[in-house]
Specification:
It is a single chain. The chain folds into 2 domains: 2-263, Protein of unknown function DUF4465 (Jelly Rolls), CATH 2.60.120; 272-334, Immunoglobulin-like (Sandwich). The protein has 1 helix and 26 strands. The protein has one helix at residues 149-156; strands spanning 2-3, 20-23, 50-52, 55-57, 59-60, 70-75, 99-100, 106-107, 112-116, 129-132, 136-146, 170-179, 182-194, 210-212, 217-220, 229-236, 239-240, 243-244, 249-263, 272-276, 279-284, 288-294, 299-305, 308-313, 321-326, 329-334. It is globular and about 55 Å long. The two termini are 35 Å apart.
């Protein structure tokens, strides 16, 4: 189901019988969060999840020696400037310039989540997922979302391979609910829209059908139902030969849910495979045979690797798309 942003009002919250209403507040995390001079969590490039109010937010640093992460980090930065072309060193801000209060107003210095989505993650639920620290199920009510500056400026003015969104274009995040490993439902929330149709269904074409979020907006997640895991994916109409050109970042705060007592187990024992430049990084859960094939199916490299982290130099291979076959399945990489 689509939820077109910005949606303004937050409905009153009613706790279900024998349920606990929980609201995310990263100023009171379960595990203390330390910040660096950029007002971003010091653990950005350290493997380990984030826990607050009983929620667990996935955070993975799968490859040693590379400044790269997948999933969530915490920031309290007020930066919303356009840092083209130096985004990598300045990826810590939010267009709203602070976290969201209970009414969706921005509060300077209030911490919030930044999520980076990777379509190449080998995790069971993808690069970005949310669960409960006690393995209980929960019924999400919603959360606040806002554009990350890198995504905002990609959608509006473009940079590098990204182009401004054209008429009919959009950038959105999708929340996927899971219970028992089965998807319950999905909710789409648009971060930017250039639709020439009435996408919010109110019978008129107006600014809510053509916007780029620069403030916090409420996304109703109640239609996901009772879940054990929420995962997040992103999509943009600005795509190239190798996928989405728009920067895959989004800011999130104020997640709200009614929590119950059912239990589940998150499986995070998948092999991790990722390419950067012409190097292939692999984090293997057990010893296994690895095969790298080109798009025509011809094997270009094969070998037996031990459990642990490995780096394979693929500099001799032509630029293009390759498939890495491993115990957890097949992963597409781009050189």
């Amino acid at each position: 189901m689509n939820k077109i942003l910005p949606l303004i009002a937050l409905a009153g919250c009613f706790s279900l019988a024998q349920a606990e209403n929980v609201v995310l507040d990263l100023s009171q995390p379960t595990t203390p969060i330390e910040y660096n001079d950029n007002d971003v969590w010091t653990g950005v490039y350290t493997d380990g999840d984030i826990t607050s109010q009983g929620f667990v937010f996935s955070h993975d640093v799968p490859y040693e020696g590379v400044e790269y992460y997948e999933g969530f980090i915490v920031s309290r930065s007020s930066d919303n400037a356009n840092h083209t072309p130096e985004w990598t060193a300045n990826q810590w801000g939010c267009m709203a310039q602070g976290g969201a209060d209970e009414n969706g107003n921005s509060v300077a210095g209030k911490p919030y989540l930044i999520n980076y989505y990777s379509s190449y993650s080998a995790n069971q639920y993808g690069s970005s997922f949310i669960a409960r620290s006690d393995n209980s199920s929960f019924t999400p009510e919603g959360c606040y979302v806002c554009n990350h500056p890198w995504t905002y400026y990609d959608c509006t003015v473009g940079e590098g391979t990204a182009s401004p969104l054209q008429e009919g274009g959009y950038c959105k995040i999708t929340f996927h609910g899971y219970r028992g490993g089965v998807e319950t439902n999905t909710v789409n929330c648009y971060l930017a829209s250039r639709q020439a149709v009435d996408i919010n269904g109110d019978g008129i074409l107006d600014s809510e059908d053509n916007f780029t979020l620069s403030q916090w907006a409420w996304c109703d997640l109640s239609e996901l139902g009772e879940v054990e895991v929420i995962s997040i994916s992103m999509e943009s109409t600005d795509v190239g030969e190798y996928g989405m050109n728009t920067a895959a970042y989004v800011c999130i705060d104020g997640l709200q849910a009614d929590c119950t007592a059912a239990t589940h187990t998150i499986q995070r024992d998948a092999d991790r495979v990722f390419a950067a430049g012409k190097q292939l990084f692999m984090q293997l859960q057990k010893a296994q045979h690895i095969t790298v094939c080109n798009i025509a199916g011809a094997t270009v490299w094969a070998g037996q690797l031990a459990e642990g982290s490995h780096t394979l130099n693929l500099a001799t291979l032509p630029t293009g798309i390759y498939i890495v076959r491993h115990n957890s399945g097949s992963t597409k990489i781009v050189l």
